[in-house]
Amino acid sequence: MAVITKTHALTVLRRAYGPDYAESVKGRLPDRIDLDEPKDTAMLYELGLTPDRLVSALGGEY
Fold it and tell me: This protein's superkingdom (predicted)?
């Protein structure tokens, strides 16, 4: 089970998309995000938090 915290997710979002975006989605994130749980991964996908998009936003290649 891969679980991340809301705090960790917001840290990644701030680095990838900036503080304004992180603040705009803060209320939609649960305190714990289970990366193996379909409902949590669907929510992340809706927010644009796919591995490809995050790596690209951080300046890397996937």
Answer: Bacteria
Question: Among candidates 18, 23, 6, 4, which has minimal Cα distance to 57?
Answer: 18
Nearest residue to 34 via CA among 26, 44, 25: 44
Length of the chain counted residue by residue? 62
Residue reference for tokens 């975006």: 21
Instruction: Count CB-CB contacts under 10 A for residue 44.
Output: 19
User: pLDDT tens digit string along 28-58?
Assistant: 999 999 988 999 989 988 887 877 776 677 6
